[in-house]
Write a structure and sequence with these properties.
heterodimer; A: 241 residues; OB fold (Dihydrolipoamide Acetyltransferase, E2P); 3 domains; 5-stranded mixed beta sheet; B: 445 residues; alpha+beta; 6-stranded mixed beta sheet; 4-stranded antiparallel beta sheet; Rrp40_N_euk (chain A); exosome (chain A)
Chain lengths: 241, 445
């Protein structure tokens, strides 16, 4: 939901505070420049209102968004998501990204795809994609390339296991610096991981035991401090040996 | 575009089966482990069961109604299930789905057809008035194996339910007097035995067997088998779903496993209910505001002070807590516990002692009325986080996954571990049920 309002803007007094849906966080008549709104915010006449619970975030010069933690995902543009192919249609795949509706993925939205050379994905295939269109009234649209048309890690995922977590945990796993649990795991194990903002995490390792260990460590880490996460990972590793 | 049931990727399917062939499960369990079980009671005696991610709430209520004409001296037991769309996006609001009906039927069959709840004791006046017991089961979160969780919640709620006592009075002795709980101690239902549902899932080509399937395993499974069995090894119901066939020997193995698990679960359930009973008895002690204030300050209250602060009921001298019909007040030395610390075990045992000892009544008053089980849980979660493993959560609580799994981890030990009926009897019991189903008496609706 990218609402651009060419109205003046001052910084909202509610930045970094936890707000509830319906709370008006900004009065556009007092603002002075263009605003960019991320997920969880909506323009309501002259006001910017919250649409979900979470912490209001602001990034200079004009970006506002809300960070919360949910079980159900609401698509938002530029989110990276993990999808599962549900159906194959003429020129597009129908993909479940855990949102309120299925998303569509054009067959040409892959690197190097042409009308003659389309990717062959089966129903049930897992893929890592980027949301390019998200609007509450239409189905979201995905893309398996970055903005410059390169694959950049997007595309089908082979093997591994997909675990489900809250959107909050997914954001923590994606954020920088690397989350303590991934850092602790990465020191002693080798595994591949792909985190979707929709609360799906793909984990792949050489052995099933490692995959299970990594996925359990990630799920356990949600409400632990950095130090606790390190201890938890150490204990898990000791046990598995 | 409309959303259907939850989707699952090929990757996950393959992984779950591959891991299971190595005797591993995605949540760190082995094939015959139960997940962490937590049973909580709220003050209105509704029971909430958590089985891993799964959460089920069961509430029992009762109403005086006219009995059915063909059974004038029997009360009724009705089971209602509610699948909230909050629990799973696949659940539709409004009409009950296929799973909701099946779940209700399995629990209903376990309880009713094995005559677990004594309906005759629910009769107040034959032909005129009986108690209609209503059991509402709400699915709060679907993390797989709803049947076992719902069945446990139902049993816990039934065990903790109290109905008001009724007597006949009036000029002709035909008027029904319902005594409010303040006047007469409410009565428990009479429950003869506890039918415990134990669910197995068959994965792969039916060659992989797991106990207590999680949501993802349920999405992969080819078949499901629910065995309702009580602590005596009596089979109260069997429900088989899905296309995978089960051989007779496999079925017998499941029956043995189920009966082991049922024994452990029954013990757990009884223990939790007992703790809840103690809590409830303790709640009856009236507390004065000064007490709370003092206890927050962490002071030790002198017994002399106490006597002045507490209202005293006349009945106190002759009643113990267990026998009390009147709303009793226990008093004496009040030992205030440290801030944040609640010594439930000591409290409970002290309390029992007190009940026996009429002359010197000493009660530990807890300033916090949080249910004990909930406390245990939270402590356990913390401890678990130290421990760091999901699968090991259980061994910290009296409700242990370890004990649940330990006995049955090795199927060969099972026969020795459980005093169950001879296989012949079990087989006979199963056969009968299967016959019934063919006739249409036990239908998968």
């Amino acid at each position: 939901m990218d609402v651009e309002s060419s109205v003046p803007g001052a910084v909202s007094p509610f930045v970094n505070r936890i707000m509830a849906p319906g709370d008006v966080v900004l009065d556009l008549t007092k603002a002075s420049n263009v605003l960019r709104l991320g997920s969880g915010l909506r323009q309501d006449g002259d006001n910017i209102a919250m649409t979900k619970v979470g912490r209001l975030q602001f990034k200079k010069p004009n970006k506002y968004w809300v960070e919360g933690s949910q079980k159900r995902y609401i698509p938002n543009t530029e989110d990276v998501v993990l999808g599962i192919v549900v159906d194959r249609r003429f020129e597009m795949f129908v993909v479940d990204i855990g949102g309120p509706t299925y998303a569509s993925l054009p067959m040409l939205a892959f690197e190097g795809a042409t009308r003659r050379n389309t990717p062959n994905l089966q129903v049930g295939a897992a893929l890592y994609a980027r949301v390019v269109k998200a609007h509450r009234d239409i189905d979201p649209e995905l893309c398996c390339t970055d903005a410059s048309g390169k694959a950049a890690g997007f595309g089908p995922l082979n093997g591994g296991y997909i675990l489900e977590c809250s959107t909050g945990l997914a954001r923590v796993l994606l954020s920088k610096p690397t989350s303590p649990v991934l850092e602790a795991l990465g020191k002693s194990l080798s595994f591949e991981i792909a985190v979707g903002m929709n609360g799906r995490v793909w984990v792949n390792a050489a052995t099933t035991a490692t995959t299970i260990l990594v996925s359990n460590a990630i799920l356990n880490s949600e409400f632990l401090t950095a130090a606790q996460q390190h201890i938890m990972v150490q204990k898990l590793l000791q046990k598995s040996q | 575009m409309a959303m259907g049931a939850m989707r699952m990727s090929i990757n996950e399917k393959q992984f779950i089966e591959a891991a299971l062939r190595e005797n591993q499960r995605i949540d760190g369990r082995t094939p015959f482990d139960f997940r962490r079980l937590v049973i909580k009671f709220s003050k209105d005696d509704s029971a909430e069961v958590q089985l891993g991610q799964t959460r089920v709430l069961a509430v029992v209520s009762a109403q005086l109604v006219q009995p059915y004409p063909d059974r004038p001296n029997e009360g009724t037991l009705a089971i209602f299930t509610e699948f909230s769309p909050m629990a799973d996006p696949g659940f539709e609001p409004g009409r009950p789905g296929e799973m909701a009906v099946e779940l209700g039927r399995i629990i209903d069959r376990g309880l009713r057809e094995s005559k677990a709840v004594d309906t005759e004791s629910l009769c107040v006046l034959a032909g005129r008035s009986v108690w209609a017991i209503r059991l509402d089961i709400h699915i709060l979160d679907n993390g797989g194996n709803l049947i076992d969780a719902a069945n446990l919640a139902a049993l816990a709620a039934l065990l903790s339910f109290r109905r008001p006592e009724c007597t006949l009075g009036g000029p002709d002795g035909q008027d029904i007097i319902v005594h409010p709980p303040e006047v007469r101690e409410p009565l428990a239902l009479s429950i003869h035995h506890l039918p415990i549902a134990v669910t197995f899932a068959f994965l792969g080509d039916g060659d992989l067997l797991v106990l207590d399937p999680s949501l993802k395993e349920e999405l992969v499974m080819g078949g499901r088998l629910t065995i309702t069995v009580n602590i005596h090894g009596e089979v109260c119901g069997v429900q088989k779903g899905g296309g995978v066939g089960v051989s007779a020997s496999e079925l017998m193995r499941c029956l043995r496993l189920a009966s082991t698990k049922a024994a452990v679960l029954t013990e757990t359930l009884k223990k939790v209910v007992e703790v809840h009973e103690t809590e409830r008895a303790q709640r009856k002690i009236r507390r004065h505001h000064n007490f709370t204030a003092l206890s927050h300050a962490g002071a030790i209250v002198d017994s002399g002070v106490t006597e002045r602060e507490v209202e005293m009921d006349d009945a106190i001298e002759n009643t113990t807590v267990t026998e009390s019909k009147e709303d009793t007040v226990m008093l004496g030395t009040v030992k205030v516990l440290e801030e944040g610390e609640i010594r439930h075990e000591d409290g409970a045992s002290n309390f029992k002692q007190n009940a026996e000892d009429d002359e010197q009544e000493r009660v530990e008053v807890h300033k916090d009325e949080k249910p004990i089980v909930a406390l245990l849980t939270e402590q356990n979660i913390e401890a678990m986080e130290e421990e760091g493993s999901r699968g090991d959560l259980g061994n910290l609580i009296s409700v242990t996954a370890e004990t649940l799994s330990g006995a049955a981890a090795d199927p060969s030990q099972v026969t020795e571990a459980v005093p169950i009926d001879t296989p012949l009897n079990l087989l006979a019991a199963v056969k009968k049920k299967v016959k019934n189903r063919k006739k249409g008496a036990v239908v998968k609706d």
